[in-house]
Amino acid sequence: MTTMTTATEPAAYRLTAADRCDSCGAQAYIAAEVNGSELLFCAHHGRKYEEKLRAIATTWHDETARLAEVV
User: Fold this and answer.
1) Is residue 2 part of a domain?
2) Which of 15, 30, 35, 67 could form a disulfide with 41 if both were Cys (CB 3.0 to 4.6 A apart)?
3) What is the pTM (predicted TM-score) of this model?
């Protein structure tokens, strides 16, 4: 009997390790577009400013769920 396994495609993420938080320089997991400019935030600063930013942001991209992923 032969068992086949298939590799699952990793999720396509927009933010990479090269994307850094505009507040502290940590890895960014949140991107917000405000007045045509993209702002990047780590999970901490994204949550800290989320309420105010969501009111004025045209887009809000959140990849903080990646922090809980088991590799």
Assistant:
1) no
2) 30
3) 0.79
